[in-house]
Structure to design on (233 residues):
């Protein structure tokens, strides 16, 4: 008696790489994170430089761009697949920012409002930064949950995995390490590397809050005169 060949489901591949769930990093002192949270994101961006300032397409997905600052708990997902998010949420601690690398895929979303409400209410999540899409923007606005991402999409994809939790992730041109500090506002998103967080906070606390525009314009006058003198010669 012959048996029919086993049918293979070819809709999805079966990667050999494992599901990785690393332990969460030791959090930075709360007062240090709070000090950075009290700074304007533009000043933080100036302090960390272009390598740690996210590209401008990463923006608030709710009408109100609520300020956000906290320790990064990172998740790397296949495009449109959110199984890794579930493992990441289970590791959240109060004040953490969930940073999700969805590889820039925006044709469908990685989750919705109910998932983030659960993460906030049960684990104290401060907000979400996603290199991909999310949904339920109006519900998130009403829930006052800060969400920054690349776009809004209504369809929620599969939960197949694998995924990686607490690994370096790519987010709008910036590599975010677990334990880094992520700061966001209407101006955009900046990342403070964990190893330099105290140095950045100290620098910003010592610098004047304003831009010193009068002195800046005086410096620019010197540069303009140098060009004019060169042109006259």
């Amino acid at each position: 008696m012959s048996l029919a060949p086993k049918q293979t489901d070819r809709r999805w591949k079966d990667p050999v790489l494992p599901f990785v769930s690393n332990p969460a990093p030791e959090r930075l002192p709360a007062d240090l994170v709070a000090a950075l949270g009290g700074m304007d994101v533009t000043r933080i961006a100036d302090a960390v430089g272009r390598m740690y300032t996210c590209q401008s397409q990463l923006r608030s997905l709710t009408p109100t761009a609520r300020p956000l600052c906290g320790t990064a708990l990172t998740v790397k997902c296949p495009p449109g697949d959110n199984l890794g998010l579930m493992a990441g949420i289970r590791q959240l601690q109060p004040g953490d920012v969930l940073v999700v690398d969805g590889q820039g895929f925006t044709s469908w979303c990685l989750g919705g409002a109910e998932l983030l409400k659960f993460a906030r209410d049960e684990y104290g999540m401060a907000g979400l930064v996603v290199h991909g899409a999310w949904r339920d923007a109006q519900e998130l606005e009403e829930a006052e949950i800060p969400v920054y991402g690349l776009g809004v999409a209504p369809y929620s994809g599969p939960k197949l995995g694998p995924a990686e939790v607490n690994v370096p992730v790519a987010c709008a041109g910036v590599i975010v390490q677990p334990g880094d500090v992520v700061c966001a506002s209407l101006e955009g998103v900046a990342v403070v590397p964990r190893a330099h967080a105290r140095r950045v906070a100290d620098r910003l606390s010592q610098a004047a809050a304003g831009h010193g525009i009068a002195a800046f314009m005086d410096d620019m006058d010197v540069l303009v005169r140098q060009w004019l003198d060169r042109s006259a010669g």
